[in-house]
Amino acid sequence: MDYINNNKSAWEEAFEHRxxxxxxxxxxxxxxxxxxxxxADVVSEIEKIGLKGKTIGQFxxxxxxxxxxxxxxxxxxxxxxxxAENIIEQAKETARKANITNCDFVTANIMDIDExxxxxxxFIFFTIGAITWFKDLSxxxxxxxxxxxxxxxxxxxxSHPFMNMLPLPHEDGFDGENxxxxxxxxxxxxxxxxxxxxxxxxxxxxSKTFTSFSHTLSDIVNSVITAGIAIKxxxxxxxxxxxxxxxxxxxxxxxxxxxxxx
Length: 262
What we know:
Domain Methyltransferase: 61-160
Protein name: Methyltransferase family protein
InterPro entries: Methyltranfer_dom, SAM-dependent_MTases_sf
Distance between the termini: 27 Å
Mean pLDDT: 96
Radius of gyration: 18 Å
CATH architecture: 3-Layer(aba) Sandwich
Number of helices: 7
Keywords: Methyltransferase, Transferase
GO molecular function: methyltransferase activity
């Protein structure tokens, strides 16, 4: 899985190229706002679930802002995992400044999370842009299943696979006057390879290689089932959760929330 190690290098380089003060004030937001950094539909779901007294984990937590937001719901303990060492350091610093003491952050390739975390969590979640970094979702979801306690819950909130067909505003195939233009195959097998930085975090630059993968909705659903986790709910939404808002409310499925139980 060399692409994972290459992505680690690319992410750590991107953090070094981040926009000035990117993420530095997250602790202030966490101290002054209710459940920031989470979209309203995720907030609705986690409030129904109730996290009080539970052990929660986020796979591919980036700089920890979403996990730290969920700590407001009084889980007993939280752990965030991400492959980029410097981004994890920012997560730790944010937790320290926000005085959140019952949350740890671990630098790890998700596929290599060790047995100390097996049967550890009541709730595990993935958010926007996490699962795209894994070629084999079945292996990823099996790892998540091993880390869940019996009856533990899995939540995935991400871009809908339909979005993989649509060109983004910075891409050659995009036409702002023709937003029903389909550019890519829904069943794309070749990876996405990018060398221009990480747009939401950095200016454009000639970066190390990021490699990500498309997955159909059936890929996602079947991988959850294969991992022995029973799907309880699958909701689709007509708004995007991180790539672009130009297609919002146009009748396309742009994001989803999947909730499943081991």
